[in-house]
Design a protein that fits this description.
The longest helix is centred in the C-terminal third of the chain and has 53 residues, at about 380-435. This protein is an all-alpha fold and about 450 residues long. The strands form 2 sheets. A two-stranded antiparallel sheet has the order 1-2. Helix 10 (about 225-260) crosses helix 11 (about 265-270). It contains 16 helices and 4 strands.
Amino acid sequence: MQIAGINKKYNSTFGSGFYNITRELDSSVMLSRALIDTCGCTIPWIIMANNGIEKKEKTRRYLLDYAIIWLTPFVTLPLSNRFAMKYIGKLTKNFWSNNHKAIHISNEFLKDTDSMMVELNKMSKGIYKNPLEALYYRLNPKKKYEPKINIDELLESVNGDKEKLRKKLIRSKNAVFFSDCMFTFGAGATVLFGNNEITKKTSGQAGFSAEMSMADREIVEKRAEKYEKSKKKRYLASLGLIAATTLGMSLTGFASLYSKSSNKLVQKLRNNSKLFDYTKGIYMSRLPFFLGNIAFYSGASLLAARNNTERKDAIIRNGVGTAVFFGGDLLLSSIFTNLSDRIFGTKLRINNDNSFVRKIFPKVKSVKQVMEEVEQGKISKSNKKVAAGIFWTNMLILMVSMGYAVPTVINKMIKKDVEKDIKVNEKNKQLFQTTTYKPLRMENFIK
């Protein structure tokens, strides 16, 4: 009986952990993207590289990408939030004050002072630790974590002017958003061009690494001549594209909050400004991550391509990756949810739109919402199981399609392009060797 009790407790703990992990992945585009990138891109794409040089190049790139895009936010963003609140918004006197977490407030509540104060009062009742803080307090158990925001101190910093507080919070959030996007995507572009240079130095030759086992050095380097002549200009152009995209997102997501105009466009931008929030002040939301990826992958990676074949490689990988991740998961989830609700009677759809398209591809409740409704007794426990099952089925389909189907197609394309250039080169050599020239003789000039 004792063993049975332990097993029951273990299963309960395991189940709870599984659903909590599923909920966190489903609610964070950064975390779910990291999972797909690891198991659907990084590992299989390294394995399916054409040669050792390409494997090393991809390994370097992905390790640096992970360090910059996936790991640094847990360190840099908590610090950036504190910096912005103290030096940009000037709302905190102490850099380590817990009041910096007021920056976590959603743009949704910064449209007016009344909404802002209601939300800040809710936040003042308790704020969760971010991963960096959680680690700090675990290593320092004697330190006491204060989970509350002191609203009086915040108001005191603006002499009680709530409108001034609202605008300073917007300014602080905008500063963090702009700097994070520029650092994340700008550093990513630097990795692309820098990695090309490392490959050139370590391999002793220029060109697209995937081709280095398919053709002679002369052919590979000839195919990369245009890139080598213009790589500095290409790098600067990629940073310019990222800066322009970031500035556009910054203006779209935050400028409308300053205005009280009744203009329809301004109101629409204001109502959708929450799309530029950071979950828990760390996780970038889907829309800016999508737009940043377009500028980074579809822009910088094309400029960093060393020849037309690598450019096609980047278009396919990034195009499929972007479409599959940012649209594929929503599409698959919608299809599976619709089938589940119709066949098994689950209640996972959001039925607030009766249009023809939404009847086929309905909006879907998040795993978090489903779990909350189960706990509230609104729907049965089976809904939670099905919602989690659909999420992981989506992840598996996306990882398999991106990880193995895409590189298989790309490797065939690369081989075909290189073989085409090899044939042209051999044909030119044969033509040169078979062309004979009639020698000039003295008698030809004597009549």
